[in-house]
Specification:
Blueprint lengths: L1 E5 L3 H13 L5 E5 L2 H11 L3 E4 L8 H10 L6 E5 L4 H10 L3 E4 L4 H12 L1
Parallel strand pairs: 1-2, 1-3, 3-4, 4-5
Helix pairs in contact: 2-3
Length: 119
């Protein structure tokens, strides 16, 4: 499985990747520092999944998702973010995100979100 992980914090990208592995998912990971890099990398590597932070410089996570969908790209997309208000969850769902996992998160939360997609 190929996964693009977009977060402006390198430490948080490492935590997301570690948690993904703890949940039992082995993946080739492409790391990105913001949505703009994520958009470029999705086109370059054709991932099976995108895990993105919401708040990032240059291009936010929701702008990243909306840009992908505007181009017709339907890659499975989920948010891993520090905020999880009802308004954000609604906007994420309306824009085509499959899930929003709010920090602090656990491997069980990743497993619950990803198992329906990847077994």
């Amino acid at each position: 499985m190929k996964v693009v992980v977009a977060d402006d914090s390198r430490a948080m990208r490492m935590i997301v990747i570690r948690t993904l592995r703890q949940a039992g998912f082995e993946a080739d990971i492409t790391e990105c520092e913001d949505g703009a890099q994520g958009l470029t990398q999705v086109k370059a590597v054709s991932p099976d999944l995108v895990l993105s932070d919401w708040n990032m410089p240059n291009m936010t996570g929701i702008e990243f998702l909306q840009a992908l969908r505007a181009e017709g790209n339907q890659v499975p997309f989920g948010f891993v973010t520090s905020e999880g208000s009802d308004a954000m969850r609604s906007q994420a769902e309306e824009s085509g995100a499959l899930f929003l996992i709010a920090k602090p998160f656990t491997a069980d939360m990743f497993s619950e979100a990803l198992t329906p997609l990847f077994g």
